[in-house]
Write a structure and sequence with these properties.
The protein has six helices and seven strands; from the N terminus they run βββαβαβαββααα. With 188 residues, it is an alpha/beta fold. Strand 1 and strand 2 form a beta hairpin. Helix 2 (83-96) packs parallel to helix 3. The chain is globular. It binds iron/sulfur cluster. The site of iron/sulfur cluster has 13 residues, from loops.
């Protein structure tokens, strides 16, 4: 069973718009300067129960507080222990909440993902990848902690995302290589 540390049913900090955000347990990257060391063990936190999953789906479908989507962070949602659980969850969100976007933060880079991890990525909209590197830390970055991390728009961005993408100077302008990679991914 997958464990989690926190669930926010209304979150405006982790990703664009109003979102549901799940912080899962389990991370093997051991980044220096990690502010989330308590999440490293996959058995830390509390079990993610079916009742919690049902609540998450109900929150995403809640019309009273419209959510733009789901953010998955941690810990690392793509820790091998979490992959089958996260894959099942994102498939369910796609099926039951087709108008919601899914953002996922991982310490692995896109290039080093295994086949099983890529099955998860196939279901999401946006991936923010790479370990946190203290020497490349930059508080001005949007959605990222350090400059080595990349925002991959894996599906056609919605207009609001596109604006935020453009507002993120480091992703769109400061690093032509990175901007090019992002364009390539958008067009796949
Ligand atoms: S990937 Fe994130 S949670 Fe994992 S060690 Fe690095 S900073 Fe911490």
């Amino acid at each position: 069973m997958m464990h989690i540390h926190r669930y926010y049913d209304v979150d405006i900090v982790n990703g664009p718009g109003t979102r549901c955000t799940l912080f899962v347990a389990g991370c093997e990257h051991q980044c220096r300067g990690c502010y989330n060391q308590s999440t490293w063990r996959p058995d830390s936190g509390v079990p993610f129960t079916l009742a919690m999953e049902e609540q998450l789906i109900a929150d995403l479908q809640d019309q009273r507080i419209p959510r733009q989507g789901l953010s998955l962070s941690g810990g690392d949602p793509l820790h091998p222990h979490n992959v089958p659980h996260i894959r099942r969850l994102v498939k369910r969100v796609r099926r039951d909440c087709p108008d919601k976007d899914i953002w996922l933060w991982t310490g692995y880079t896109l290039a080093e993902l295994t086949a099983a991890q890529r099955e998860v990525i196939a279901e999401i909209d946006v991936l923010i990848d790479g370990r946190f590197i203290e020497a490349e830390k930059d508080a001005r970055l949007l959605w990222r902690g350090s400059r080595n991390q990349t925002i991959w728009y894996l599906r056609q961005p919605q207009s609001e995302d596109a604006e935020q993408h453009a507002a993120d100077g480091h992703a769109a302008e400061g690093d032509p290589q990175r901007a090019r990679r992002e364009r390539v991914m958008q067009h796949q």
